[in-house]
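ARCHIVE CARD
Drawer: 12
Card no.: 0347
Subject: one protein chain, sequence and derived structure
Cross-reference: see card 0346
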Amino acid sequence: MELANGTATVLMSNYALAAVPPPLMKMLHLTTLNLSFNKLTNLPTEIGYLVHLVELDVSSNLLTSLPPEIGMSCGSEMKNFVTGGIVTLEKLDISNNQLVEIPESFNRLVSLRELELNSNCLTLLPSGFSRWKLLTKFCPNENALELITHDLCNMSLLVELNLSKNKLTELPPALGKLKNLVRLDCR
């Protein structure tokens, strides 16, 4: 664990963890949490307490679902949680799991800049995902997506988009409006 300017970083990658250690959910000033390459099958709902979290990496685990508290904020569903939820997330890596859906509450993650969803079992993205307007990197590749709606074209800051290895038969025609797009992979 590193502490700097009152913020904390926890790197617990490759620890063979089957569960998130409960004391982590009490670290309210945590800004970076890396739990990748473990054996996690779920994340605790208390993850919503981590209101200052900017980076979350839970890639390469055994997750089949995600708690909606990741995208909830006080004043809605999280009345007992600290104000804000973790809608401050800028970088989220949930790749290489067994996820079949993304909770609708993730639409509230309006600060996201990088989102790695690759190598899961997703068949669709949550409705209203166009709220992720700050995304520069979006990788829902290696899933089972059959449709990408025109909402994708509202992500005007996208630089990298990887849609490869899905079940897509067409792309939204307005994809050409993404003027900052440098890398598009649709193989």
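Annotation on reverse: Residues 74-84 have pLDDT under 50 and may be disordered. The chain has two domains: 1-97, 113-187.
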